[in-house]
Amino acid sequence: MKKMIKKVAALAAVAAMTVTALVGCASSSVDNSAVVATVGETEITTGLVNFYIRYQQSSIESMYEAYYGDQIWSLEIEEGVTYEEYLVDTTMDMLEEYYLLDAHKADYEVSLSEDELAAIDEAAEAFVKANKDDVIEKISGQKEYVAELLRLFTISEKMYEPMTADINREVSDDEAAQKRLAYVGFSIASYDENGVETKLSDEEIADKKKEAEDVLAAAKANGSLYSYAEESEDYTAHQLTFDAESTSIAEEVIEIADKLAEGEFAEVIETDATIYVVQLESLLDVDATATEKDNIILEREEARYTEIVDGWKEESGIKIDESVLEQINVKALKVMPVEEEEEETEE
Predict the structure, then answer these.
(1) Radius of gyration of the chain (CA)
(2) pLDDT at 1 over 70
(3) Is residue 20, in this structure, part of any structural domain at all?
(4) Nearest 10 degrees: CA dihedral of 109, 304, 1, 243?
(5) How far apart are CA 307 and CA 21, in angstroms?
(6) Which of 128, 139, 263, 346 could form a disulfide with 54 if both were Cys (CB 3.0 to 4.6 A apart)?
């Protein structure tokens, strides 16, 4: 959820965005006042949904157009689900969540001040002034929808802290302990320009393993794999913090390194793709352990937040009028942010 909060903070800059909307092959008009969904007794209009979708669309298209062009919305991000369907579904999920937070804000003594409401109004007004009338019409960028979305973002951001205030924030070193290892890797596979893997021959792999054995012996004599690699200039050693659940390196490496004593070297480890020389440098990396404590607290916060919101969803639920929602055709418009330099050139 903290990731979502950061996203909300970024979206609060909506007033600074200027977009260009180009009509595609299908109709892009929607009935802004039509009720597309209800959350409890709250009605969600098509205008609000369309604007929220188009705002996200502008970021997505500017990020991925160079890679996928007009095909981005037809791509399947999971079996049977296109990116367009995913965007619409997640937008409806988030709006349901926002309105549930809005409905329960008094439970946590959350409200918007006059200054906050004034800032929202000013931001919405700035967005409307920054965009042409035809663009506003196509993306449902009228002031009322911009302001409502900003209001929901602001409430969402303010609700997270009080909703997660009661979690246990005590985390022991044992629970968060992060070890640190150093390793040198020898790849036993090569890849062509299309990413097709070719494994080395048995003889070549044997040579790599012999080289790894030599590095291990030299590192043991030095006392430090990392120092040996730095001094030799022939090899690159990497340092990695980990615990038993880590997946940032091959499972075999984690399993073996987790059993080593501080300073101990493992025997050469061979996986399907890489041969490793490994030394456990520390049983408790202080900085990494402190970071892991923060991660554990964040996980507890997110679990508590999700538990509360899911409970509200069970009680209230969202009812969607699919026939109205189908008015919004993501592919019907190309929505791209206008770069500042481009604006200046036009002026």
Answers:
(1) 27
(2) no
(3) yes
(4) 140
(5) 39
(6) 139
The domain tally of the chain equals 2
Instruction: For residues 189-194, give the mean pLDDT.
Output: 71
Residues 36 and 156 in one domain: yes
Domain containing 52 equals 2-168+296-346
Instruction: Say yes or no: 218 and 121 in one domain.
Output: no
CA separation for the pair 188, 204 (Å, rounded): 8
The alpha carbon of residue 63 and the mean position of all alpha carbons in its chain are separated, in whole angstroms, by 14
What are the phi and psi torsion angles at 209 (to 5°)?
Answer: -65, -40
DSSP 214-279: HHHHHHHHHS-HHHHHHHHSS---EEEEE-TT--SS-HHHHHHHTTPPTTPBPPPEE-SSEEEEEE
Q: Record the pTM.
A: 0.77
Answer yes or no: is 290 within a domain. Answer: no
Look at residue 342 and give its three-state secondary structure. helix
Tell me: do 195 and 132 sit in the same domain.
no
β-bridge partners, 114:
none
If asked whether residues 263 and 329 sit together in one domain, one would say: no
CA atoms within 13 A on the CB side of 87: 25
Question: What mean pLDDT do residues 265-284 have?
Answer: 96
Average pLDDT score, the chain: 88
Distance of alpha carbon 337 from alpha carbon 28, whole angstroms: 18
- Rounded Cα–Cα distance for residues 243 and 247 (Å): 9
Return d(Cα 17, Cα 149) in angstroms, integer. Answer: 14
CB 209 within 8 A of CB 268: yes
